[in-house]
Specification:
Blueprint (H helix, E strand, L loop, with lengths): L1 H13 L2 E6 L2 H18 L3 H20 L6 E9 L2 E9 L13 H10 L5 E5 L2 E7 L7 H22 L2 H40 L7 H22 L4 H4 L9 H13 L8 H5 L2 H18 L4 H22 L2 H14 L4 H4 L2 H26 L3 H18 L6 H11 L4 H14 L2 H17 L6 H17 L6 H13 L4 H36 L4 H5 L1
Antiparallel strand pairs: 1-2, 2-3, 3-5, 4-5
C-alpha cells in the first residue's frame, strides 16, 4: 500500500515540471525525454506524444542552427483549467521555428494550431515561446454516450417509480429545467461572437500571403460553392422528414419573404445583430469587416491581430463549456422520462436512415463527378480514399485523420505537395458539404417534430443557414452545440430541441467526420487539375 501511494505521488509530480537548461544537444535530449514522460502521465496517446517530442526537437534544433547555443531554455509542463500543456521558452532575439517557409501565411498556420496539429509560437519581452496543448487519450464517444444514457435511464426510471409526482415536478421546475436552460443561455451568449470572429478572420485570411492571391481565392470559393450546392440538392429529403410546405400556391408571398430575408441582413445598429441573435446580420457584418481589413492591409494589422487572438480565446472558452455537454444530456434524458416525452429520441430512426442515405448520395456524387472530369476509374478513387475514411470513422476526429489524408493526396492521388499543405487544413475548416447536409436534415426533422410553419422562403433560409454555419463553425469541441443554437434560433425551432440534437450528435459525429474526410480529396483533386498541380501518372496508378 505504501509503495502504491508513493508511485501515485510521483506521477502527480511528473504532471507538473518546470526545469531550466542551457540550449545544447544534451538539453535537447533531456527535454525530449521529459516530454515523453509527461505525455505518458497525463494519458496522451503514444503517437501524439511522439508528435510533440519531434516538434519540440525540431524547434530546438532550429534555434541551435541559428546561433542560440547556451541561451537560457525553460521547459514548463503542467495543466491549465484541466488542459495539459507543454511550453518551451528561449531567451534572446525573436526567432520563429514554426514559421511557414512555403508561403501559406499565418491563416493556415492558425488553422493547424487550433486543431492541435502545430505548436503555437509567440514572442514577448525577449522570450521566444512555443506551446503545445496536449490531447489526452479520448474516451470512446460511443462508450461515453452509452454511459450517460444508461445512467440517465436508471436514475430517471428509478425516480419515476419511487418519487411522487409532486416531488418530480418540483425537481424539474426548481433544478433540472433551470440548469439546462442556463447552459443553453451560455451557448447563445457565446454563439454570436464566435461566428462573427471566425468568419471575419477567415475572410481576412484570404489575402494573408501574396502567393494565395490566385490559389487561395479559387480554393475558398470552390469549397463554399460545393458546400452550398450539396446542401441545396438535399432539399429532396424534405418530403421524407419535413412537415410539408405552408402557404399553398401563394408564390408572390413566398418570393416576398425571400426578398425580405435578403434585405433584412442590413442591421440598423452595430449591436442589434448580437442583441437579437440575428445570424444573417452577424455573418454579413463579419464579411464586411473581414473584407475591409483585407483591403486596408497594414493599416489595420493590429485590429486583425486582436480579432485573431479574441477568436482563439472564444474557441478556448467553448472547449471548456463543451465539457458540460454530457451532464446536460443526462439531465435532458431524465426530463424526457419524467415528462413522458422519450418518444422524441426513440422515433429518430427515420432521421438516422435519412442521414446515412444523404451522406452516401453526396459521397457518390463527389466520386462520380471527379471520375468523369478526370477520366479515372471510380473504384480506383474509392479504394485510395478508404484508409482515411476508416481513421475518421473510428475516431470521429478530423485532426486524427489529417496525416492519413495528406498521405493519400500526395502519394496515391498525385496532388502537388504545396497545394496539399494549404488545401487540406483549409478544407478541414471550410469544405463542409456533409456537415451542411446534416444541419439541413436536423432542421427538417425538428421542424416536423415541433410543427414549425415552412415555406419556400423558409427552405431557402434553411439551406443558406445550414451551409454558412457549417463553414463558419470551427472544428473544436462544442462546435456542434454552437451550430444548433444558431440554426434553431434562426429557423424558429424551440430551444428544447437543442439537447436532443446534442444527444443524437454524439452518434452522428462519426459519420459526419468520416464522410467529410472522404470527399475532401475529391474537391482538392478537381482544384489541382484546374491549376495544373496534379500528377496524372500517380492518380491513374
Amino acid at each position: 500500500m505504501k509503495r502504491t501511494v508513493k508511485m501515485h505521488k510521483k506521477n502527480l509530480f511528473k504532471e507538473k515540471i518546470n526545469k531550466e537548461f542551457r540550449l545544447n544537444a544534451e538539453a535537447c535530449d533531456e527535454v525530449s525525454d521529459l516530454i515523453m514522460q509527461f505525455c505518458d502521465n497525463v494519458g496522451s496517446e503514444r503517437k501524439d506524444a511522439l508528435k510533440y517530442r519531434l516538434s519540440a526537437e525540431e524547434c530546438m534544433i532550429f534555434w541551435l542552427s541559428h546561433g542560440c547555443e547556451d541561451a537560457r531554455l525553460v521547459l514548463d509542463m503542467s495543466r491549465f483549467m484541466l488542459i495539459p500543456f507543454i511550453s518551451i521558452e528561449l531567451e534572446g532575439e525573436a526567432i520563429n521555428p514554426c514559421s511557414n517557409d512555403k508561403g501559406f501565411g499565418s491563416f493556415t498556420d492558425g488553422i493547424l494550431t487550433s486543431l492541435d496539429l502545430s505548436p503555437e509560437y509567440s514572442y514577448d519581452k525577449g522570450v521566444n515561446r512555443i506551446r503545445f496543448r496536449v490531447r489526452k487519450k479520448p474516451v470512446g464517444q460511443i462508450t461515453k454516450l452509452c454511459l450517460v444514457m444508461l445512467s440517465a435511464i436508471i436514475v430517471g426510471m428509478t425516480g419515476k417509480i419511487i418519487l411522487p409526482d409532486s416531488v418530480r415536478d418540483a425537481l424539474l421546475t426548481a433544478l433540472i429545467d433551470p440548469v439546462y436552460n442556463t447552459f443553453f443561455n451560455i451557448l447563445g451568449c457565446i454563439a454570436g461572437p464566435m461566428i462573427f470572429l471566425s468568419v471575419a478572420w477567415g475572410v481576412y485570411g484570404i489575402g494573408d500571403a501574396s502567393t494565395l492571391s490566385k490559389i487561395g481565392k479559387k480554393m475558398m470559393l470552390q469549397y463554399i460553392f460545393t458546400t452550398i450546392a450539396a446542401c441545396a440538392c438535399c432539399v429532396a429529403f424534405f418530403p421524407a422528414l419535413g412537415p410539408g410546405l405552408s402557404g399553398g400556391g401563394n408564390t408572390k408571398g413566398q418570393f416576398a419573404s425571400v426578398a425580405e430575408l435578403i434585405l433584412g441582413i442590413f442591421p440598423s445598429t452595430i449591436v442589434e445583430p448580437f442583441a437579437t441573435g440575428n445570424t444573417l446580420q452577424i455573418i454579413f457584418m463579419a464579411v464586411i469587416i473581414g473584407v475591409a481589413l483585407l483591403y486596408l492591409g497594414r493599416k489595420t494589422r493590429s485590429v486583425a491581430r486582436a480579432i485573431e487572438e479574441v477568436n482563439y480565446l472564444v474557441q478556448f472558452l467553448m472547449e471548456i463549456i463543451s465539457k458540460l455537454v454530457p451532464f446536460v444530456i443526462f439531465l435532458v434524458i431524465i426530463n424526457m422520462i419524467w415528462a413522458d416525452s422519450i418518444d422524441i429520441m426513440t422515433s429518430s430512426w427515420k432521421l438516422m436512415a435519412s442521414i446515412i442515405a444523404a451522406f452516401a448520395a453526396v459521397a457518390a456524387a463527389f466520386f462520380i463527378i471527379t471520375s468523369i472530369r478526370l477520366k479515372v476509374n471510380t473504384g480506383t478513387l474509392i479504394r485510395k480514399s478508404i484508409p482515411t475514411f476508416i481513421v475518421a470513422l473510428t475516431t470521429a476526429s478530423s485532426a486524427a485523420a489529417f496525416s492519413s489524408n495528406v498521405e493519400t493526396c500526395e502519394e496515391k492521388l498525385g496532388i502537388e505537395t504545396s497545394l496539399i499543405r494549404f488545401g487540406i487544413p483549409l478544407g478541414m475548416v471550410m469544405h463542409k458539404p456533409v456537415s451542411a447536409v446534416y444541419n439541413l436534415l436536423i432542421v427538417f426533422y425538428f421542424a416536423e417534430r415541433y410543427d414549425v410553419s415552412c415555406s419556400v422562403g423558409w427552405l431557402v433560409v434553411a439551406v443558406f443557414i445550414s451551409s454558412i454555419i457549417a463553414i463558419s463553425t470551427p472544428p473544436i469541441p462544442g462546435g456542434g452545440a454552437i451550430a444548433y443554437t444558431i440554426i434553431f434560433a434562426q429557423m424558429g425551432i424551440p430551444s428544447e430541441a437543442l439537447a436532443v440534437a446534442l444527444a443524437i450528435d454524439i452518434i452522428t459525429d462519426f459519420f459526419v467526420t468520416s464522410f467529410e474526410m472522404l470527399v475532401l480529396p475529391m474537391s482538392l483533386l478537381n482544384i489541382s487539375s484546374g491549376l495544373g498541380m496534379l500528377d496524372r501518372d500517380v492518380l491513374q496508378s
